User: Fold this.
Amino acid sequence: MKSIIFTIFISILVFTGCTPKYEVIEDVSPKAKLKKVTFNDIPGFYEDDLELAFEVFKKDCKRSYKFDLFKNVCEKAKEYTNASEFFTTNFTPYELVNKDGSNLGTITGYFEPLLNGSLEKSEKYKYPIYKTPDDMIIVDLTDIYPELKKYRLRGKVEGNKLIPYDDRKKINDRADLEAICYVDDRLDLFFLQIQGSGKVRLENGEMLNIGYANQNGHKFTGIGKVLLKEDVLEGYGATMQGIKAYLKDNPKRMDEILNQNKSYIFFSERKVGASGALGTPLRGYRNLAVDRRYIPLGMPVFINTKNSVTNEPIANLTVAADVGGAIKGQIRADFFYGFGKDAELFAGGMHEKGTLTILVPND
Assistant:
């Protein structure tokens, strides 16, 4: 009997000792699992260009200072000239961890694409970049369900009923929606919706800045995963470039594949280039898209991962300034590469493991 009790006691000690230790900071996120670390524990922190990171933080403070979490520290940023001193004095680093105590998550990349277009529809420029439709109704449930304050229902009225808004196929079949302009490549338009913002070069050389305005309320489905399950990407690669090449080689499948992503993004014309959900212009290599259930917008985030194309390490202090339909999960981020061909190449091939360390303001 004693040996049985002893065995149970030892088992309890073992399982208790193996339980991962993490913290939850309500002001940051009631869901995020965090492990307190030091700045010396963050690989590459002191080797990073912290002065540039400080500039980006102050840029994003133009919006994030409105949040209680960043109000004081954004004000303090005006007093500092030394970036390293600012971050190490006013923040405490916490590494995001999984339930099992591991610290690796998935890091992808995005960029600001360039499309060719026209203000008038023609045989060449026939794919519309739509504005938010007039018939889409957004229902705020906050008054009825306060716990759903971050969620909105999107629908339209049919008869005397509110029904879900049109999915991708139905929207593409319509001809009554208002367009900002028209572009010449259907796949580029599809991937513009995934990136969330971009530029359109008109025939006269004028450049339009296009940014996210709204979404149709349907769940995002990654067509890369669809094609991987079919095992048809051999020789193409599971990158944006590989997916484009496969669909161009198999044009009869284009409708079938693209329509599996029922999510559809509507845009508005902007005065500046790519800007994220925080409402500030994005900076290449210094901003992230995150799942804000775990990482608040405006939060400094040190990312450790690598470039999938060059294999060069990425150890940068960034700011969470954007969100995305595919960015779901705790240790999950989309790294913004900026604008241009290199950015497109690097973002299109980016799918790496990495760690995220958030810098939480001390007061």
In short: Residues 27 and 94 are 13 Å apart (CA to CA). Residues 2-18 form the longest helix (17 residues). Confidence is low (pLDDT under 50) at residues 1-17.
